Amino acid sequence: MPIGTPLHERTFPLCESLNYREWSGYYTVSAYESHHEHEYNAIRNAAALIDVSPLFKCMVTGPDAARLVDRLITRDVSKMTVGQVFYTPWCDEHGKVIDDGTVSRLGDETFRWTAADAEPAVVPAERPRDERPDRGRVGRDRRGRAAGADVREAAARGGEGGDRSPEVFPRDQRHHRRRARRHLAHRVYGDLGYEIWMPAARALDVWDALMEGGRPFDIKPAGMLALDVARIEAGLLLIEVDFFSSRKAMIASQMYTPTSSGWAAW
Fold this sequence. Notes:
Elements: H1 8-14, E1 19-23, E2 26-31, H2 37-45, E3 47-51, E4 56-61, H3 65-70, E5 85-91, E6 97-107, E7 110-115, E8 137-140, E9 146-152, H4 165-168, E10 178-180, E11 184-187, E12 193-199, H5 203-213, E13 219-221, H6 224-233, H7 258-261
Parallel strand pairs: 3-13
Antiparallel strand pairs: 1-2, 3-9, 4-7, 4-8, 5-6, 6-7, 9-12, 10-11, 11-12
Helix pairs in contact: 2-6
């Protein structure tokens, strides 16, 4: 049975529709109202707050962490500076796409990896260190140890409206850059927006602060249906909709390369 996320205590009373989906063992709001139109409009014209806690989270550390990450993702890690975040797919040993997500470089030898479907560990953590192909360690966050909130709004399209989340957050954050204060935030791919990562124990405090601080900008909670629309409009692929993970493909034709999936532009 799914369980509530660290933000469930806040999202459940707001979910009038009781329209949920299961995501990695958690209850996740699909739409707070009977339809996701108002939530989508908040993304496009104001600001929206989305609970993305069920994302799998991995830390990759060690002297050869960069080499290990570079062997999996399609982006060039040598061009990734500390504090930068890459949106990228990653592949199996045959070059077939497993999943897509973000990889953050927190230090010279430290990366944080997020995935919607499953953790991208290719070297078991229990395997002796000297038997691994690279001296990198993959650690998995335990369930409920970290929470995530996604604050999104519209990209400016000219004219009035949209472009509100930079008013909730400082404007000196560049796209795909993180800023470390009491909690960790970085600009996310697709629309203008930020992902904020915090200890699960502080999740409710952060949610309350964002809702209070975003009130002058008409911030609203939004569910996964509105997020899915925003991702499609940004040209981002949805796993098990636009492509299958190579780990779950039943036949060869269900396996995709980054090029055949349209990731060449990334």
